[in-house]
Write a structure and sequence with these properties.
Layout: E1 7-10, H1 16-27, E2 31-36, H2 39-48, E3 53-57, H3 63-77, E4 82-85, H4 109-131, E5 139-143, H5 156-176, E6 182-188, H6 194-206, H7 215-226, H8 235-246, E7 257-260
Parallel strand pairs: 1-2, 1-4, 2-3, 4-5, 5-6, 6-7
Length: about 270
Amino acid sequence: MSLAGKTVLVTGAGRGIGAGIARCFANRGAKVAVTDLDATIARDTATSLPSQSLGLVADAASQASMGECIDRVQRELGKLDVLVNNAGIGGLNLGAFEVGEEGPAVMSDAAWDEQLVYNLRTAYSSSRAAIARMNDGGSIVNIASIAALSPAVELPAYGAAKAGVVHLTRTLAVELAPRRIRVNCICPGLLWTRAWEMLTARMQQRQPELANLSQRQIFDNVVAQMTPLGGEQTPEDIGNLAVFYASDDARMITGQVVAVDGGISLRGGRL
């Protein structure tokens, strides 16, 4: 699946899943624009890519910021063919609605709103900015989460926001079909991230028997217990599907939502 001649913009790509997605596109010959709120990591990631690239500061939740960013991408890289909406924030440790052993839920209205802004409005605002500038026949790939597919009692705002990304994907797929702009979604499973560092630290506090394990060992045990295929997903696992969605091989695929989770979502029930 060569993407030579295509220009791709990946939001929130300074590190983690976004950086892995950017590498996958660059490895297939695409020109890649990396955006992040952190100028240093955006530039460093872009510089590390094997194709022509650009590292930019942009707020994915702002149409104005993304519009200016895409205008620069078009000036310096020629055009925009593919937008990958990856920017977001972790949603762990925000509490549940019900009163539990630790007392009432601690989530504030501000924390709820923050999740919707940085995990849903990012995809909406970036897409609006891109659609106005993207040629017909382009592609949008949204990154959601398996939290959008199953109840997650400690991720109420995060899960709701990511479920919104799934709905937005399907809505835009229908709306943009006359322009042959395809819109698809990926729901990653369990990857080692900063959010999981916080969660495993919390697990150690709650469960003294975990004190002798490292946070990474705790995460690996969770992955082994929850993943039918066994093993952790990687940023490149997500990136490879994003590349396929954006390629001409997927020219008749739109409005689809695929979990890259080793089978976790097949288990049903809540996360």
